[in-house]
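okkk here we go again. third time trying to get the pyridoxal-5'-phosphate bound version out, last two times i messed up the smiles copy paste (missing a bracket lol). double checked this time i swear
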Amino acid sequence: MSAPLDFTLSAGPVAASPRTLAALGEPITYHYDPDFLALFRRTQAKAAQVMQTTNDVLLMQGEAILGLEAGASALFTPGAHVLNLVQGVFGKGMGYWITGFGAILHEIEVPYNDAVDPSDVIAYLDANPQIEILTVVASETPSGTVCNIEAIGRACAERGVVTFVDVVSGVGGMPFNVDAWGLDVCVAGLQKCLGGPPGVSIVTVSPRAWERINANPDAPRDSYLSMLDWKIKWLENGAFPYTPSVSDMHGAESCLDQALEEGIDNMIQRHARAAEVARAGVLGLGLELWAKSDDVAAWCVTSVRLADNIDHVELRTLARARYGVMLSSGQGAGNLIRIGHMGPTARGMYPVVGVAAVGQAIRDLGGTVDLGAGHEQAMGVLARQMAL
Ligand SMILES: Cc1ncc(COP(=O)(O)O)c(C=O)c1O
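finally!!
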C-alpha cells in the first residue's frame, strides 16, 4: 500500500500557504495590462525589502539556476581571477562555470559538513590581491550548512572584490543583509524559506556589479540569460525582455507580502526554532547530525548522517511511500537524509513529524534508533519554546 502525500518536508520546493496558492489562481492577464505592470513593480520593491537592499532587483523568470547562470555569464571574464568558496555541491558547481567562462579559478574547499572560515578567506585575499570576484553559497542546501556571509562580504567590500552570492535557500532562513554587508550580486529563490512557487530568480545587482557587467563585451545581450536586457529594457524603458509568468508573479507577491507582514527577523527566528526541534529529535533518536557543529548547521534544513547500511534514496522513498512524508536525500553531498523546515513548515509539529518519519523509516530498513527518545527530545524543545 502506498500512502498519500501528507507532509512535504523536503529541502525545497516546499508546500506553499493557502494564501499563496490562492494568489497563484488569480486570473491570467496580458503582461502589459496596467494591473499586472503595477503588480510586477510592487513585487520587485517587496523583493528588495526582503533582501534588505536599495540595489536594482531583477525578477528573472526561471528557477534560481537561471539567476545564477545569468550572473556567472555576466561577471566571469577570460583571465579574471575568481575565488570560489566550496562547502557543498552548489559551491563546487560554481567552479565549473568560472573555468567554463575562461576565468582563473582559485578555490578554498572544506569538507561538505563544514563551513569556510572567514579568516582563511581574508588571508587568501590579502595574499592574492589579483582576485576580482568572490563566489559563495550562503546556505548549502544539500549539506544543510551555512557560511558567514557577513564577515566575508565585508572583507570583500573593503578590498574592492565583487561578491556573487547564492542565497537561494538562505533568504528568510538566516540573517542576510545585502546593503549592510556590501554584497554585489545575490541570487535568491522563492521556493525555499519564502514558501513560494518554484520558477522565479530574485537577483540583486549593485552599481559596482553593473559597471563590471557593462564593461564585459561578452555579457549576454538579447538573451534569456541577460541581466543587461532586464536593466535596459525593463528597468530603464518599461518593456519586458520576455513574457513573465503572470501566475508565478501573483504567487511571488503573495509570499513576499506574508514575509513582510511576519517581519524578516521573526521569520528567521521561526526557522531557528524549527531547527532546534529537529536537531534535538535527531540526537534523541541516537543519530548523528551531518553538520560538524551547530554554528555551521542551517536553520532551514536539518541534515542527518546515515550509517553505511542505510541508503539515503531508499530511505527517502520508503518514508514517502509508507508514511506520506516527503524528505530530501543527500543530492550529492553524501549519505544523508534531510528534514526540510522551510517556509510554512518551519513551525510547530512539522519538524517533529520529520523526526518521527526518519526514525521509523530507518528502523524499517533495519537500522537502530530510539524512537521514544527522539519524540521526547523533539517535543521537549517544542514544549519549552511554546511555554515562553
Ligand atoms: C544552494 C542552492 N543553489 C541553487 C539552487 C537552485 O537549483 P534549482 O534551480 O535546481 O532548484 C538550489 C536549489 O536547491 C540551492 O539549494
